[in-house]
Amino acid sequence: MGFLRRVRDLLHLAITGRARKVSRAVAYRIYSNAVSLGLRRDLTVPFAAPAAKRPIHVRPLLPGDDLSCLDVRHPGLSDDQVYHRLAQARLLQSGVRTCHIAVDGEAEPCYMQWLIPASENDRVRAFFGNLYPRLGPDEALLEGAYTPEAYRGQGIMSSAMAQIAERAREFGARWVVTFVDEVNVASLKGCERAGFAPYVRRTERYRLFRRMVTFVPLREAATHVNAE
Ligand SMILES: CC(C)(COP(=O)(O)OP(=O)(O)OC[C@H]1O[C@@H](n2cnc3c(N)ncnc32)[C@H](O)[C@@H]1OP(=O)(O)O)[C@@H](O)C(=O)NCCC(=O)NCCS
């Protein structure tokens, strides 16, 4: 299902004149090497969420929430902006729980991110394949960080992410983990300001549509390889 939605989104990009993004996405799956950092936060260590430049309130996404920030028909969007919006929408449709948002009094959310408990391991595997280690009972995964363009650069990610992570206590997690591409400087900064520290290096290699994922704990030898 996730694969079909991805194909649908690539077709959407192609027929809306964004063929270059499609060819880059396909080339990526034919041959690529990417590195992400796994970062984690220990909820037993007190951490004060930093304040954003505007007051925000964090809560789970509700059925009536305005998600027009993911509308790909807005004029003037770049290929990357459309690509990110489609990816957020796919994750919403995946059924992976639980999407949280930050709101600041406007109708539109100013941040969204999934806080995923170990009970969602099978859904995570079905949607993301081998991209994440299976969560232990005391772990939670934060995925799908997204600040709509109009709200970026106001410290919303770090403030909201720190507050969403705290909610993992409600289902008994101690460790909250997240993964960020090593070239995504904005996201790495946001994570570190939200109290997350690097603990593992993930290597993702595509060869002819086959993905190999390796996790190497920082300062230790390789633990295991996920292949699909
Ligand atoms: C990554 C992302 C969530 C950061 O959100 P944010 O709320 O703007 O984060 P912050 O305000 O804490 O800013 C973090 C960094 O973003 C960069 N930034 C600042 N203004 C920005 C803007 N207008 N547009 C883009 N990036 C900006 C800066 O490097 C900033 O660091 P600085 O404060 O030291 O200058 C957001 O850029 C985004 O949604 N990107 C697309 C999706 C994505 O990459 N998600 C992360 C996947 S792991």
Task: Return residue spans where pLDDT drops below 50 for at least 5 consecutive residues.
Answer: 221-225
Which ligands does the model contain, each kind named once?
Answer: coenzyme A
Average pLDDT works out at: 93
Specify the number of helices.
Answer: 6
Structural class: alpha+beta
Provide structural commentary.
- 31% of the residues lie in helices and 29% in strands.
- Strand 3 (99-103) and strand 4 form a beta hairpin.
- With 228 residues, it is α+β, with helices and mostly antiparallel strands.
- The protein contains six helices and nine strands.
- The protein has a single domain (2-227), classed as Aminopeptidase (3-Layer(aba) Sandwich).
- It has a nine-stranded mixed sheet.
- The two termini are 16 Å apart.
- Coenzyme A is lined by residues 84, 145-147, 152-158, 180, 184-187, 189-190.
Could you write a compact summary of the structure shown?
The protein is an alpha+beta fold and 228 residues long.
Which SSEs are present, and which pair or pack?
Layout: H1 2-15, H2 19-30, E1 31-42, E2 57-60, H3 79-94, E3 99-103, E4 111-117, H4 121-128, E5 139-146, H5 156-166, E6 175-181, H6 185-193, E7 197-207, E8 210-217, E9 224-227
Parallel strand pairs: 5-6
Antiparallel strand pairs: 1-6, 1-7, 2-3, 3-4, 4-5, 7-8, 8-9
Helix pairs in contact: 1-2, 1-3, 5-6
Coenzyme A (COA) binds at residues 84, 145-147, 152-158, 180, 184-187, 189-190.
